[in-house]
Amino acid sequence: MRVSRAGSRWGTSATALVTVMVVGLARNAAAGCGCQKPPPPVAEVRPNVTYAGAPVTLFGASLVEGEDYDVTFTSSATGDDTTVSARVVNRRDLGDGVFKNQLVVPVPELPLGPAAIVARLAGRTSPAINIQDADFTVAPAPVAVPSQYGEWRVPGYRAAVGKDGVVYVTLDLTGTTEPLVFEARALGYPLRFTNQDIIFRNAQGFLMQLLVGVDGEPVPGMFVVPASDPSSSDSDTLRYSRHEFSTYFLQHAERQPHAVDPTDPNWHLDGSRHVDHNHLILAIAGQLGHQRPDPGTTPAFDLGVTTYSLFHQGLVGVSSVTMSGRALTDGYDTAGSPPTPDGDVFSNGMVSVHDHAKIEGDATGAGFDVARDAAVSGSRTIGTPLSFMEIKVPAGIPDLGKLTVEPGSPEVADRAPHRSKGGKGTKRSGGPKGRRQRTLVGPGSFLVSDLTIAGRSTLFVDNSAGPVTLYVTGRVTVKGTGRIVVADPNPEKFAVYVASDQPVTFGGSAATRFYGVLYAPRSTVDIMGGGQWYGAFVGNALRAAGRSNVHYYRALKGR
Description:
The protein has three domains: 45-138, Immunoglobulin-like; 143-309, no CATH class; 315-557, no CATH class. 1% of the residues lie in helices and 41% in strands. The longest helix has 6 residues, at 246-251. The radius of gyration is 26 Å and the shape is globular. The strands form six sheets. It has a 20-stranded parallel β-sheet that branches. Strands 11, 13, 14, 16, 17, 20 and 21 form a seven-stranded mixed β-sheet that branches.
């Protein structure tokens, strides 16, 4: 591959941000990992928006396999052009899976914005492929989103604008695997947009996710926050929440069925399509002063980004939080460390603290009902309602069906595929007589329809080698002296995501010790009885009662 005369340099990074995927619901699918997206449409050029250095694929009936072609990219903004050369190969088309002749070339450095593409057989003048500038846009280099929580800026940022006035931003999420919330806005670029104005594609051309769901309702977890002042010189804010992404990376590990084919990175070794969730292209069809931005490059502005944990408070109830009895929230740093006043509580609705319950931290909600003998040690704030993402279960993870651990049930050790040669095996617990144990061995993710732990029984989570994530599509019930025990007490290494509106019941006793995080935004969640609950808990109507003590793990904030 050779490169001839270089065009002028183009801008650096991105504009109003937000990211990535909540993978689609499917069971035992061949590809797994969230790669079951509808394929991109058959086209002459794919993707039609990407950045310098990224591959672009050209298709045409006149292309001859094995022949060399010169491909010229011409900027419509400046007229600068750059030519690269490549040889035609015959590969499967991502669009329809059919083997076709195609040219795969890297996008050269050009000014941002629309660009025309012409491909000619080497030494010939007549074009074999002719792509108009309305059908291809050079985007800025991806902004790398850090894994650390906090606030940061990309100064002097410029975004690309296509021929139709759509603003394009690219993001690199390679380094982010933990549950995160992203917020971003363009400081000094007053772009106005709504939920209906935004879509995500990736660097392959897959449509990743629309902001608009069924009947025009926003997809939970992704929405636009208008600028507080309509005359502000800053853009509206885009906010997006996502859960863990460790499953995706584990399922693409070397030698796994979903590992990428080294001869063609668009496909897995098992023959299924690979979807790149790391390099995303955000398209915003917004307006500047009631009109679309001009094609080309935006004026320079600062891109302001805030990232924070999906588990930003100890107790979260989407519709309400109710604490009663002697329930307590506080915070902690490490096991055995003194409690801290960081047991914050959040709700879009009422926060009610009854009897002798106590919040050792701040409370945010639509209103407060605090009894005389109850207490909130920190501030009480009327907050802005937040949207909570909907859980979608990664396909291809081990499906354990109904997971019931109670006297009389078998004792089994379940392992994720990359950790197991045999899948399941009988295992004696060696525990007290009458107590049953089921073991989940990490790192890995598991799917269950219902989770029930009862009697003198234990679900043992062996997260000593890496995190364990449990996706539940039904209800969760832990009752009696049933318990969940983890090998590593770091709450970041055990997560339960509930992809249903079925109830979650955690019944504890004085001896209960739970370490992990729960995300069940559509479920009624009850933490009752007693015990010590370390981590963070998100439900719809969330109720803590009895002598249940919830200790928020401060490291979840990323501080």
